Amino acid sequence: MKCIRFFSFVFLSVLAVSCSQGEGGQTFREFFSKQKEGQSEEATQATPAVDTAGQGLHRQNTALQEENTRLQSEGLQLRRELQQERMARLAARQDSLNTQLLQIQAALEAISEDSVSTTQTRDSLLQKQRFTQQMDQEIQERLVAKSKAVDVQLGKLEEQKRSLQQQMDLEKRQVEIAEKKIAVLREEQELYESQRQKLWVDGAPQSTIDEAAAAIANADKNIEAEQKKINSASANINGLQETVAEIDIQLEALNASIRKSYTAKEILEETIAEEQEQLASEIAGLDSAWQSRQAERPALLRDKEETEALLVGLEQKTAEILKAPAPRPDSPVADTVQASSVKEQEQSAEALAVATPDSLSLQKEQAHPREAEKNRQFYLRFLALFGALLVLLFGFYVLRRRRKRAKS
Description:
Radius of gyration: 68 Å
Number of helices: 7
Order of helices and strands: HHHHHHH
Shape: rod-shaped
Mean pLDDT: 73
Largest sheet: none
Distance between the termini: 25 Å
Number of strands: 0
C-alpha cells in the first residue's frame, strides 16, 4: 500500500512538473486523476510491477527536472546573449546616427560658412561695381570738362585765325593797291619822260624841261614809297601766314586730342560696360548659388530633427533594456517574467522599427531562438508524458495478464 502511495505521489509530481508549463496541463491532470481513481483497485494487486514503474518514473522525473533546470539555464544564457546582442546593435545604430548627425551638422555649418563667404564676395563685387560706376562717372565728367576746355581753346584759336586772315586780306589789298599805284606812277613816269625828251628835242626852255624832270623824280619817289608799302605788307603777310600756320597746327592738335578723347571715351565706355556686365553676371551666379545652398537647409534641418528624435528613442530603448529585471534561474516564474520582458522589448522594438530600418531584422533574429527553445521544451515534455503513459499502460497490461492467469 505504501509503495502504491509512493508511486502515485511520484507519478503526480512528474505530471505536475511536466504539465504545469504546457498549454494542455489541466487536461492531462484531469485525465490522470480519473485513471488513478478507476484503477486504484487494480494497482493494489500489482505491487511489484507498480514499484518497478514507480522507480522508472522517479528516475524519469529526476531526469526531466535536470533537463528542465538545464533548459532554464540555457534559456537564461540565451536571453542574456540576445540582450547583449540587442544592446550591441542599438549601440551600433546609435553610433551610425551620431555619425549621420555630425555629417548633417557639418553640412549645415558648411552652408553657413558658404553663406558668409558668398555674402562677403557679393559685397566685394557690389563695391567694385559701385567703384566702376563712380569711375565711369568721373571719366565722363573729366572728358566733358576737357571737351569744354578744348572747345573754348578751339574757339579762341579759330577767332584769332579769322582775325589774322582778315588782317592778311587787308595787307594783300594794300599790296594790290600799291602795285596798281606803282603801275600808274610808272605810266605817268614814262609819260613825263616822253614829254621831257620831246621838250629837249623841241628846244624848250630849261625850266620846262626841269619841271618834267621834277615830275619824273616825284613819280620815282612815289613808286619807291609804294614799293616800301608793298614790302611792308608782304612782310606782314608772311608773318600772318606763319601765325596762321601755327594756329592751324594747334587746331589740328586740338582736333586730334578731341578725336583721341572721344576714342578713349568709347573705349572706356565699352570696357566699363563689359566690366559691369561681368560683375552683374558674377553677382547673379552668386545669388543663384546662395539660393541653391539655402534650399538645402530645410531638408538638413528636418533630417537633423529626425536623427535627434531617433537618438532619443534609442537612448530610451537602451535605458529600458538596462532597467529590465533579470530573472533568476531557480525562480518558478522566471519564464513568465522573462517572457513578459521579452514581449515588452519586442513591442518597443516594433515601435522603433518604423524609425530604424534594421530593427525588423534584429527582432526576427531574436524571435527565432526563443521560438526554437519553446518548441524544444514542448517536445521534451510531450515525449516525457508519452513515455510515462506507455509505462503506465504497460503496467496495466501486465496486471491484467496476471489477474487472468490467477483466475484460470
